[in-house]
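Q&A log
Question type: sequence-to-structure
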Amino acid sequence: MKLEYDSTNRSLTIGLAGASNMVESGAVYSFIGAGNANTILGAEDAIDGGELNFIDTNAHHSVIGGGHSNYIQGPYSGIASGDSNAIGNNGADHNFIGGGQSNIEDNPSFGVISGGWNNYLGVFSWGSSIGGGVANTIRSHHSFIGGGQINGIELYDDFSVIGGGDSNQVWSACSVIGGGKYNWDHAVFATIAGGVSNANQSICGFIGGGFSNQIGWTADTSVIAGGKGNLILTSTLGVIGGGCFNMVQQGP
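Response status: OK
Response body:
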């Protein structure tokens, strides 16, 4: 067991296993417990173990629990474990990554990625969360993706939710996609519960499920419950309960 205390920088390195851990000059009150080739440059930080983990100069009051090649650049942040996860940019404060691989929080604040692979929180995703899955992306604040893969909530589409599924996209604020595949919300307060290849462009519009159903731009507050190939084009308060290739084109 190796115990090193730097009285000048008031830092502590405890080598319970591994080697080449480093607490740099200026990293006051910082701590490395074990592992190999871990580095701390910031003040009042801790790396409990793992290998090639790195806490940068501005990332004071931050923690890496373990894992491999994890990186923190912003303050008051934590990475529990995993491989090649990163909380980047000096302004990325109060963020957390639970684990997984290649997850990135790129300068948000109060962001969370619980796990998964290759998930991304963008610069403006303040207070947003990704539960897991693969290659999910949030670029807006106060938004949530539960899981699935290749789902996205784009820039300025704040307060939106994708529960899961595959390749679903939200392009407007306060919108929801529950799941399914290739679904697309492009109006505020729009909802698609599930299904495949549904498109909702209606303010306060709702699509329950089915395949290739669409509510158009001027068909606000309209509903398609399900079915296939149904279209509400210009009818406010239009309703299609189900079936195939039905169309509502005019209304009040």
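Response note: The radius of gyration is 23 Å.
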